[in-house]
Amino acid sequence: METILVSLGAGLLQAFEPLNLFMIFAGCLAGLFVGCMPGLGSVNGVAILLPITFLVPPTAAIIFLAALYYGAMYGGAISSITLGIPGASTAVATVFDGRPMAQQGKADQALMAAAIASFIGGTVSIVLFTLFAPPLAAFALKFGPQEEFALMLLAFATFIGLGGDDIPKTIFSILLGLVLAAVGFDIISGQPRLIFFDMVEFQRGIGFLVLAIGIYGVGEMLWTLETTNGKVQMHNVKITWSRIRSNFGQVREYINSTWLGSVLGFFVGTLPAAGATPASLMSYGLSKTFSKDPDSYGKGNISGVAAPEAANNAASTGSMLPMITLGIPGSPTTAILLGGMIIWGLRPGPLLFTESPDFVWGLIGSMYVANLVTVLLNIALIPVFIRVLAMPFTLLTPIIFVLCVLGVFATTDRMFDTWIMLIIGVVGYLMRKLNYPVAPAVLAIVLGPLAERSMRQSLIGSQGDVTTFVTRPISLVCIMIAIALVSYPIVKKILRKRAAEA
Amino acid sequence: MTVRTAELLMAIATLILSLGLMLSIYTDGLRIDWVEGRGPGAGVWPFWLSAGMAAASVWTLVRWYRGQTPESRSYDPYVSRETVFLVLVSATSLLVLLIMMNIIGTYLSLIAFMFFYVRILGRHTWPMTVGFMLGTPIAVYLLFEVALTKYLPKGLPIFEEGFLWIDNLRYEWFY
Question: What percent of chain A has pLDDT above 90?
Fold first, then answer.
């Protein structure tokens, strides 16, 4: 415990270094902006702005992106409440009660509840993160390639079991991401693979950023243009400082839902691939289940805003835990962060705590500061962001497209990748319209090289004996959980059928 | 085209893609089995994953046939007329931007791109249009070329030389 406190103290000091503090402010601000923009979420913000972070040292870069992630979680609620359009999928549950509250002229109450719940959720999860990260990292040091591969399987299985999407389409999405990750030279034999139409450009492979920006930048924008028909409707939001002050008194009404969402969100967030969206939806559902007045949910209950907001913030921190300690991202955003860490020359995983303690504790320290900065910025800037939200799509769309194109080009220095980005964006949009989930593909393209390497290392080590994956206890447990997760939707279906028959 | 037809066509397209990937790996001569003394061949991973993609596509086709997916039961238009314009214009404008970047370079393309969105599509005022047309390339230049030292595409030599003049001017003034 003492070691944790000393390391945390050092991390906090690092967070207060001028450059890092500036990055926290910039990240929180950018995140709030990105989060509240319909069509953009933390994943889009991190993907689009990742190339910009190559200018600063890795610690400052991850602090900026983590702060952006935080800010986006806060910001997502703003457009959910005022426009009824979730700024990101993580803020979908916030719409259920936030929108009716805004329509009743209580947008300020809803926005304040979202900010305070986000702050509590964020703080609870950072404390849990601080306590759990080092022991989990120590445990993870026992991992060999077999365990690594089993963990990857677990990550993919979570998407299939808990994602709630069409199962064959989810499987297709995961496998497509893994195959796209295999384009280029084979990591072990050096042989070229999947060089489409003999184009030499494919020899360098398809970067995860190209896929991520294509899907979350271009594809998401096309999706939003379609769903909003290019028109964003504003609601009259009355916000005055005296009303903001008086809204603090309401905290007691939603504190229980907030605690529930905070703890639940953290643990759901740590599950690979579960992330903030299922966390916020589960938190909303549980809050409604335990409420004394469940009928008022969906009609403007303030707890219905607080519960998902606390959960999505807690989950955003929770999802960083497996990313930092195991090298397994817990959400699409952390998948991109993971890719960024690899680009910066770091190797996420258990060794990160021993090889780069400054980086890890600097990040943890910055989370405490970022949480405080974001809530203050959020409350202060609510009136400003409401004005920005009125920006028409004819101004917003070109800015986002330009950021996408230049973001991809700046990362790879190849126009070829911008073409791939456009194709992926359009195809991703068309597939999304048919309920093909896109997040698993992004996760898979990041994890693909790691998964292939660990699988082949395991098999080479065992002389081709596939039982090597089930003879090691940790690997076996992971595989069993993965099987359970994949079976879960089928079991659920059978149980439902039986209950209906009974 | 209805959503139901679109789902069928998409599943067929994904199946063809998967089989095409498998064929590509096979015809490239990559080993898709165990190589004695070297472990799994270079083609094992992508080949069998592509086979999995093909299986998932067939599964989707079966579900479509049985009407088990919400999309297979939907006769709504896949892309409605109201939205097809917006989506088509956005995707095409991005396509044109990429083509123009190769011909007239990034900055002139950005000016034209902003003019199209802000003035033609958005019908905003001239001061705002000019603000965006000039502000965007200047911001991009300062961020990418000055701060990040990234050399963005300048197009054909005639346009590239024009920008070299600006770069020289910057170096003469500031360095």
Answer: 8
Tens of pLDDT, residues A117-143 = 988 998 998 888 888 776 766 666 667
- Report which of residues A338 and A169 the model is more confident about: A169
Residue A491 phi, psi (nearest 5): -60, -40
Q: Which chain A residue has its CA at the smallest distance from B135's CA?
A: A399
Contact criterion met (CB < 8 Å) for A169 and B60: yes
**A160 sits in which H/E element:** helix A145-162
**Residues in chain B with pLDDT values less than 70:** 147-148, 175
Task: Tell me what the mean pLDDT of segment A10-22 comes to.
Answer: 80
Q: pLDDT at position A349, please?
A: 76
Q: How many CA atoms lie within 13 A of A244 on its CB side?
A: 16
Predicted pLDDT at B93: 93
Report how many domains make up chain B: 2
pLDDT in tens, A157-167: 877 876 667 88
Domain co-membership, B7 together with B68:
yes
Q: Are B61 and B100 part of one and the same domain? A: no
- CA A111/CA A77 separation, integer angstroms: 7
The set of residues, in sequence order, having a beta carbon less than 8 Å from that of B89 and lying 6+ positions away, is: B121
Residues in chain A within 8 Å Cβ distance of B132:
395, 398
Instruction: Indicate if B27 and B61 belong to the same structural domain.
Output: yes
Facing residue for A464 by CB, picked from B34, B116, B151: B34
Q: How confident is the model at residue A232 (pLDDT cuts 50, 70, 90)?
A: very low
Pair B120, B132: CB distance under 8 Å: no
Cα separation, A345 vs A246, in Å, equals 49
| Residue with token string 């999995």 | B52
pLDDT at residue number A233? 46
Residues in B touching A225 (Cβ below 8 Å): 83, 86-87, 90
d(CA A353, CA A360): 6
B16 and B86 in a single domain? The answer is no
8 Å CB contact of B113 and A218? no
The H or E element spanning position A109 is: helix A107-140
Q: Tell which of B50, B73, B96 closes a domain.
A: B73
- Structural domain range at position B123: 81-174
B22 at the A interface (CB within 8 A)?
no
> Average pLDDT for residues A233-257, to the nearest whole number?
70
Say whether pLDDT at A27 is over 80. yes
Max avg pLDDT among A59-68, A235-244, A405-414, B108-117: B108-117
Count of beta carbons in the 10 Å neighbourhood of residue A306 = 37
B77 phi and psi angles, rounded to 5 deg: -65, 140
Closest of A314, A277, A305, A270 to residue A119, by C-alpha: A314
Listed by number, the residues of chain B in 62-81 with a beta carbon closer than 8 Å to a beta carbon of chain A are 63, 69-71, 78-79
Q: Are residues B22 and B65 in the same domain?
A: yes
Q: What pLDDT shows up at residue B10?
A: 95
Same domain? For B88 and B170 the reply is yes
Domain ranges within chain A, ordered by starting residue? 2-501
**Do B56 and B121 fall within a single domain?**
no
Which of B55, B73, B91 marks a domain boundary?
A: B73
The residue of chain A with its CA nearest to that of B41 is A189
Instruction: Let me know whether B99 and B169 are in one domain.
Output: yes
Crossing angle for the helix pair B81-103 and A393-412, to the nearest 10 degrees: 40
Contact B46 A179 (CB under 8 A): yes
